[in-house]
Design a protein that fits this description.
Length: about 400
Amino acid sequence: MNELKKVYLDNAASTKVDDRVLEAMIPYFREFYAVPSSEFSHSPGIQIKEAIENARESIAKKIGAQAEEIIFTSGGTESNNIAIKGGAYGQIDNGKHIVISAIEHRSVLESAKRLAKEGFELTVVGVDEEGFIKIDELKKAIRKDTVLVSVQFVNHEVGTIQNIKEMVNMVKSINPKIIFHTDAAYATGWIDLNVKDLGVDLLTLTAHKMHGPKGVGALYIKKGVKITKFIDGGFSEFNLRGGTPNVPGIVGFAKAFEILSKDTIEYVKGLRDKFYEKALNEIEEVRLNGARDFEKRHPNNLNLSFKYVEGESVVLYLDMKGISVITGSACFSRTLEPSYILMAMGYSHEDAHGSVRFTFSKFNTPEEIDYTINVLKNVIDTLRRLSPLKGE
Ligand SMILES: Cc1ncc(COP(=O)(O)O)c(C=O)c1O
């Protein structure tokens, strides 16, 4: 019997670690396992400290920051928690109002909601039908007592890239004291990020969506921005986050960032574009969700709806054929609620249930695209024949 072909198209959730990244990490399990805080006691500690500082330097350079403006964390979720809660409390002398967008990752949404329970006022700004923030609404939301604005760089579900620079300029022209945070977890490595050019105060990075390891990320904190510490228990990361750092992860993070090339990104875009073209040619009534201008869309992202069929059914049928995709965002699809992101974009319940996210990587091949489209065509045909939504 032929083995089931496996095609992994869930690269916005996480990616396969590159062998070069893994090789860079292995010595930090086997040979260099001291803790950096022992740098004042012995030479293994000094070696570890150096490895961390080299990684910090390298990652800072990638985003146009200074090394001392980067703190390492356990990933995008933690960076967002520190940015939102630590950022808001750090500026509390200026006010207690914060602003986020309606399509943020849950780590931003829930951090902001927690602050609202603790006495901050929260304004949530809407998006249009392609997932772009409504700039006028953002402008109206800014107040004298606003201390923090957080808008994601790119949406993890529909791939829409925001114009962060424009928003930063607008927000700061109204109230220059405001701290602007952007969650660039899904953008890390894929899209040019220059903090000086963007003008942001805080920026979230993560390693595992660009062939780096899971469980490691970073937060850029512009020099002079006050952050209230909330992980107590030591002085590490410029006394902002207690705990022993994930040294192999940090080394792997820097390596992954270093090796993700423009050619790789072009290759992945090519796969994505081929997939979309074939889907449009071979399947009827396909709808693209998110930015229609592909220049304003994450290079590895396609989010499609197939009229009359539910995303959940497509995902399950594809999985039976070895193809891994998701409906809604990874952390949300455990429930059968429609995606809050598509709902914020003005979709009906029915349309919001129909979305399927296909996200590609350098480990996918053109043959996998052909195979997936063939399977998808049959799955959609079958489901439409069974669909009560499709009248005769
Ligand atoms: C936009 C966005 N923000 C934050 C996160 C959380 O990152 P991590 O998985 O590193 O905690 C993710 C990952 O799913 C994401 O896509």
